[in-house]
UniProtKB/TrEMBL annotation:
Functional note: Catalyzes the complex heterocyclic radical-mediated conversion of 6-carboxy-5,6,7,8-tetrahydropterin (CPH4) to 7-carboxy-7-deazaguanine (CDG), a step common to the biosynthetic pathways of all 7-deazapurine-containing compounds.
Annotated GO MF terms: 4 iron, 4 sulfur cluster binding; carbon-nitrogen lyase activity; magnesium ion binding; S-adenosyl-L-methionine binding
Protein name as catalogued: 7-carboxy-7-deazaguanine synthase
Gene that specifies this protein: queE
Broad enzyme group: lyase
Subunit structure and binding partners: Homodimer.
Gene source species: Ferrimonas balearica (strain DSM 9799 / CCM 4581 / KCTC 23876 / PAT)
Domain Radical SAM core: 18-222
Keyword Glycosyltransferase in record: no
Keyword Iron-sulfur set for record: yes
Reaction(s) the record says it catalyses: 6-carboxy-5,6,7,8-tetrahydropterin + H(+) = 7-carboxy-7-carbaguanine + NH4(+)
EC number(s) per entry: 4.3.99.3
UniProt-annotated binding residues for S-adenosyl-L-methionine: 37-39, 94, 136-138
């Protein structure tokens, strides 16, 4: 088992349920979803000419499309090594659910870590059952993929980016018939726009949903 890795870095989880928790982020390369506002476009393609040695993606953080193939054993050994204090692994992308994440999450959880996946919901989620799954459903994007019902059902947290009312309506349509007991639903204003903030606050209060704020953007950290 191998994973294409764009970068590995340690920081603070900036949004959603685990806001403020120190975490190691594992950003996988590859995403066919095509969101217009994507801020990690460098992860979309997995091109042979961009492949580098594994060590070169540690702490990369430079927004380059370079990626490295990490064998499972090597990746687990690195993540559980002495250089990281955090015990919370965030597997993000790109779209991490393009890949089978069971071997990695099983190993990390067995090593005493908590795992979280951040996904668009456009792929089936393959992960250890104890993994916290955050679905930010991406509807009507250029890639033409549909949000998978199975991903919404697996989600522990459904965190929806919102700029205008139509995004709330999209979420309502997606969640129709999905059992929400035990799940957190959160609205996240896109780009900290004033109108989006106001809309999200109002709807969260009306529905008793959570507000997710991208605190890392205010702090200006990755
Ligand atoms: S799913 Fe994520 S990585 Fe993929 S295009 Fe959308 S925002 Fe970007």
């Amino acid at each position: 088992m191998q994973y294409p890795v764009n970068e590995i870095f340690e920081t603070i989880q900036g949004e959603g349920h685990f806001t403020g928790v120190p975490a190691v982020f594992l950003r996988l390369q590859g995403c066919p979803v095509g969101c217009a506002w994507c801020d990690t476009r460098h992860t979309w393609e997995v091109l042979a000419e961009d492949q580098v040695e594994p060590g070169l993606v540690i702490g990369a953080g430079d927004g380059e499309p370079r990626w490295a193939q990490w064998p499972l054993e090597q990746l687990v050994a690195h993540l559980t090594g002495p250089q990281y204090r955090a015990r919370h692994l965030v597997i993000t992308g790109g779209e991490p659910c393009m890949y089978d994440l069971r071997p990695l999450t099983e190993r990390m959880i067995a090593a005493g870590w908590r795992c979280q996946i951040e996904t668009s919901g456009c792929f089936e989620v393959k992960t250890d059952p104890q993994t916290w799954v955050t679905v930010s459903p991406k509807v009507g994007m250029k890639g033409g993929l549909e949000v998978q019902r199975s991903a919404l059902e697996r989600a522990n947290e459904i965190k929806h980016p919102v700029a205008m009312q139509k995004h709330v309506d999209e979420l309502d349509a997606l969640l129709a018939g999905v059992a929400l007991e035990g799940k957190e639903v959160a609205l996240q204003p896109i780009s900290q726009q004033h109108r989006a903030n106001e809309l999200c606050v109002r709807v969260c209060i009306e529905r008793n949903w959570r507000l997710s704020v991208q605190t890392h953007k205010y702090l200006n950290i990755d």
